[in-house]
Every structure is written in C-alpha cells, then in structure tokens.
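thread: overnight batch results

M.L. [08:02]
morning all. the overnight job finished for the chain we discussed friday. pasting input first so we're all looking at the same thing
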Amino acid sequence: MKFCILWLLFASCVCPQFVHAESVVSFEPRDDMARLDGLITGTEENLRREKALREILIEYKKAETEAIKNPNDSDKLSKLVQLAKKAYNAIVEASLEDYFSPQFLEELKKLSQIAERKNVPAPK
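M.L. [08:03]
and the structure it wrote out:
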C-alpha cells in the first residue's frame, strides 16, 4: 500500500501529465486584470447602494422629526413607516446590519412590520 502511494506521488512529480489540467490555475495577466475590473465594478455598485441608503436614512430622520412634532398627522406617520421599511430592506439587502446599532435596526424592523399591514389604524 505504501509503495502504491509513493509511486503515485513520484509519478505525479516526475510526469506532470498525470496531473489534471483543470487543477492548474492560470495566472495570466489578463485574468488578473479581469478580476480587478470585476472588483472595481462590485465596489462601485456597493458604493452606489450605500449612497442611496444614506439618502433614505436622511429622509427617514427628517420624517421622524416631523412625525414627532405632529403625532396626529397620519400622512407624516405613514411616510415615516414607509421610509423605515425602505431603509430596513436596503440595509438587509446590502448585508449592512453589523454597521447599525441593534436598537436602530429593531426600530426600523418594527416600523416595517407596520408598513406591511394592510389596515393601519388611525392615530388617536
């Protein structure tokens, strides 16, 4: 048994044609450039999503301030709830939950659940 293993090891070192061609990784410069281009494209897309999320959160904070000032205005509350849902979904979609406090995420999640209800009761 040991002889077979040693022979296979020796044969693979001395005769590289025994090694599968698929297991050899090509390190051509154009492959490296293609990988770098892919990385740049992905980074630009992530940056675009993060900037869009930032705008949503700015809008959310403004709507939150307005809803606190006018708690009986159902339009302002509805806007707040819809923006919370939009923000929460964007955060989850981009896998950015670790960058926000658990309390903030819970707040967005609760408001998102309200947005998903069909009949939101009118404020009292």
